[in-house]
Amino acid sequence: MQSKWIAPSAAIARVADRLGRALAAPALAYEPFVVAGHVVGWVTPWRVERLARWPQLFRRRDRALELTPSLDTPQARTEALTTVARTLSAEGALTAWRDERYAVAASPGEPTLFELERAAARYFGIHSFAAHANGLVGDDARWRMWLARRNPTKAIDPGLLDNLVGGGIAAGSDCAATLIKEAWEEAGIRETHSCRAQGAGSVDICRDTSDGLQRETIYVHDLWLPADFAPANQDGEAVEHRLCAPENALAVLATDDITADASLVIVDFLIRRGHIAPGDAAFAALNALRRPPALNPDREQLKPL
User: Fold this and answer.
1) Per-residue model confidence as pLDDT tens digits over 72-95
2) Mean pLDDT across the stretch 214-227?
3) The pTM is what?
4) I want to staple 294 with a disulfide (CB 3.0 to 4.6 A). Which of 123, 206, 235, 269 is the partner?
């Protein structure tokens, strides 16, 4: 029986160094964004100043930005924030408009307070959710992994390598439906196969970006594919696919040629499957990246996301 591949310590150290920087905890100042008494986002002071120019919609209270309580239904809040987002987009303050919304709630599973255009998610620092899948060939002892190259025209991380399947969970959808949809659009994987993806928990990201605060939970999956499978992009969002041996995937993770999100999903795979030795000097640092601290409404302290 072939022994399980274990990542070399030197290579793991390089990955840990790069991801420690790419996924570093927020260093900027943020003010809570409060809706219906709940902290649902985090906004930088200069963005708060811009939003305060809509005094009929926002007000400053106790070092927080509050959506006016007069907007007391999900529909009213959604309509108001859509108008704001369209203005910000016209000013060039957002990434490319997606015409897709995220549902925002006080916490996962609770009723939706409002929906927000995806391009504005980081501007307001809302908690977003995504579903990703590692596309795998072989077996647990010796596998290869499919990576996709994002189209250079993408609004986020243009031209970088990515997981074979991944996408944000839009309002009205769920993890399973998102994975099936993205598997077909991004790699031509039919539902009869994508529905077999093995859920493996989640990883969290909380970091500064040029667009605002990325606060995201990614539901991770392992999708084992036939040896003769060849990805076929359907929506133009991927321009290349490559099948990487473990050593090559590890080398990519040490570079900035792959998204931080996908890197964390792959590191999670390596840890879960025992490909990084628990005694490795960088194990603890990489393991901690899967559950970073997040901003706390009680000022600048941190707590789990």
Assistant:
1) 999 999 999 999 999 999 999 999
2) 97
3) 0.94
4) 206
